Amino acid sequence: MSDDDFMMEEEEDEDYDFDYEDEDGDEPDVDLENKYYNAKGHKEDEPETALAEFQGVVEAETEKGDWGFKALKQMVKLSFKMGNYDKTLEYYNQLLPYTKAAVTRNYSEKSINNILDFISSSSDMVFMEKFYQTTLNSLKETNNDRLLVKTNLKLAKLWLDRKEFGRLSKILRQLHASCQADDGTDDQRKGTHLLEIFALEIQMYTETKNGKKLKALYQQCLSVKSAIPHPRIMGVIRECGGKMHMIEKEWNEAQTDFFESFRNYDEAGSFQRIQVLKYLVLANMLMESKINPFDSQETKPYKNDPQIVAMTNLVSAYQRRDIREFEKILRENRTTIMDDPFIRAYIDEVLKNIRTQVLIRLIKPYTRIEISFISRQLNIPAQDVEDLLVGLILDKKIAGHIDQVNQRLELQRQTTGDLRYSAMDKWSTNLETMYNANINKIKAMMAAAKAKAEEAKARALANAAILQQRAAQQQQQQQYQAPPPPTTGGALAGGAGVGGLSQLELIRQKKEALQARLSKALPSTTTAASASGLRAAGVSAAAAGVAGRTAAGVDPRARGGLGMDMSPMISRDAEGNLIINSVTAGRPVNAPSFATAKVNQKPEPKKELKMLEVPEDLINPEKNPYFDENLAAAPRERRSRPMKFAQQGKYINIANQIRAGQRVEQLRREIEESARVNAEEEDAAMKDGFTKREVLKGVEWWDAGFLPNKTYDDIKDGHARIETEDSLITLYVQHPIPIEPPNEAANAASAKPRPLMLTTKERKRLRRQRRAELLKEKQDKIRLGLLAPDAPKVKLANMMRVLGQEAVLNPTEIEMKVREQVADRLQMHLDTNAERKLTHDERKAKEARKKEEDLAKGIHVSLYKINDLSHPQKKFKVDKNATQLGLTGVVLMYPAFSIVLVEGGHKAIDQYKKLMLRRIKWSDNTRLDGTEVSESTTDNKCLLVWEGQLRDRQFQTFRFLKATNDAHLKQILSRNGVQHYWDQALGFKEEDMLGAEVTL
After folding, report:
1. Portion of the chain with pLDDT greater than 90, in percent
2. What class is the 1-143 domain?
3. Where exactly does CATH 1.25.40 map onto the chain?
4. pTM (global) more than 0.85
5. If you classify domain 842-927+936-992 with CATH, what class do you get?
6. Is 998 helix (H, G, I), strand (E, B) or coil?
7. Are strands 958-962 and 888-893 parallel, antiparallel or unpaired?
8. Are 570 and 579 in contact (CB under 8 A)?
9. More confident residue, 788 or 144
10. CA-to-CA distance for 450 and 781, rounded, in angstroms?
11. CA 517 to CA 151: how far, in whole Å?
12. What angle is formed at CA 537 by the lines to CA 536 and CA 541, rounded to 5 degrees?
């Protein structure tokens, strides 16, 4: 065994010390080198001898160097292969000190990493734990963080395999901390290691079934951007996401994650891809997808894998809604499918889905059906059927009720009118709800605005009170700090001093001095709020009057209200009028001489109504000119009625009811008018045999832009705007908005994606590349010893060239062997073809599946008119082909002519159309016995009246019916709502068939 073998490759490990410098005095130790390579030569055949020789290399080395490190590395690997784990640890402990100084850091790191990968295949968990711990203890001394993280990850994988989640959690926390930045967030530069850590955590929480942690971890994994992850790690993460979505019943997201997980596992070559592919099929069935998961390029190679073929058949039966085949596959492949607990947990949900779909399809044609019949069809107990029906009724997927006495399901068919009226009633209710919500919202807004206004008013009153208080405090301070009043001139002239004045005179002088200071303290030029602003702030006219009287010199104690003064912005002039100091200062304001508050005003006397006296002329009947003696009607007494208040919303509800009634009445009139117009048009078309074209009035709308005078005479006169500058025709190309074709929405779910169309050259190139890759993979496996080499393909033509000398020595025996090999290869080819050949049941199932796929694309209808269908051979062909193609419809035999109405898939209708218009010779009246019928059928023809597409089938079977007259025929067709087909066939003529008839 050489160093190039698996897990022991050392292409870059060896350093041969080639040195071509003359001045280098160091020479390689040739003796150690020879011993090392001699030991490597015995490694394959004599491992014990190789170990002894490698030990000799280590002992012969005076100082620790490269050859001793290489020898110990080979000793570790050899002893591990021999199963001697104690010696492996011993040699490994001798190897680790070399990594500190004897060899380079990169070389030692690569070698240690290779050894760790090599021993990871061991099944001895205790040995691996000791090996990893020994490595960690050594790496802590060398501070090799990168190799330390890798070793910890391998140790964490070991704890995961041993299900020691306590130790695993501890080591994962340490690893996560080593991959974080200083601020505690994840370091995106270490994204690869972060993903490996998250993958281990995901596997741990999957084993412990901690869904909350799994969800948080999955979101963290998706946020890691700057990483180059291993596909196996991303496979684990995506598998976790798929299982998490499955738990929350998010089938679409689960299917996407399982598909991504399968792709990553497949890229990594992991065997887990098979299990994840099963999960992908499970999610595909739960999301009720019409697309087969094995149609994709990634999953198609595994379609016939022995472990997957059961799931392939299962999803095929699910999409065909074949409940019996589905249950049969589950029973026969229980070990392959049901052994996985995850699949086992959701298989009941899949069974419920397919039973529900089969049940809805089963009861669709009926209005009353026995529960026992449904039970036999679904192959489940009647109680389970009843549970399914209860769920469907409560979910409003079917309209009906269960008659438990007779064990019967009775369905209710709602007419189009009922559905329309229900929708209108719901619409009216929603409008009323929206109206009430808007009214309540407006009321709330008005209440909020009113509260806001009250709050602003209260704030203004508070501000006015504060202004009054500040003005009073300022006035009191000026009063206490005022100097003594000077003596008056009159007193001095009289020769009397201050002491000679009377007490009353002193008080009067003080008041005058105070009034003068107040006049100076209240300037008239101060800019303030206007009178309207004071009223808005809540300052009453009475308060303004008090302030005016104070400024005029009135005793402050006579002001009342705790001696409070008004704002300094209000003053009086010399005449006592109030002055508002604002931009309109100087205007006199008369003080009101009446109370402004309503509570202080005197109540006004009530006005008494005076009774007018009635003239005597009206009281006396003899003088009343309008009195009639013949009318002896007694005066009617009017009874007093109590007052009744209308409830809130009463008249709104009445108005809504009137509007709803008017809408219903208008809709009824429109329906009647539309039905009348349609009936008149149908009668006119049936009467004339063709549709009359509407008489053109004026010009067509598409020509109106080119005709200035809106008449076609403009073309003759040369006034048409066709080549002029203002013409609508320009050099620009209009790209119309793409419109979805009819029935596209119905077929979107069932239609399969069309594969990419390749040319013959491209298909050959892809096949050549694929076969080359498979051959290269097989050659690699043969080179690694995983597969035995193929025997040479010997034929009689190349026998001598391939076998050579052996063929010359015994040609007869060699020829017999070669002929046997040729026969074996031929038989193997025939056996392979026989295995691929479908059985009778499989072929029938395939044909049924093709018919279902054809029907899933839409129901197509064709109507044929035949002059004479009395020939038994032609009747047999019409009936047999319709039955074989799975068509439904009716053949109406009528004395004048016959009509054939068929419904089915597009392909089946096309084949039947070729039969009716091309294959059957309607003019041939020869019977099977060679005789001819008496009637002449040379003019017998089959005409295609109409073909189109419908949403649903109108018939359940195909049968022949005879009608005696028009009324009887219309009665037969009206049962299925297709009586208009008879009217269409009645007025159809041969010239109306626009090339639909195909001639041979």
Report:
1. 15
2. mainly alpha
3. 1-143
4. no
5. alpha beta
6. coil
7. parallel
8. yes
9. 788
10. 88
11. 97
12. 80
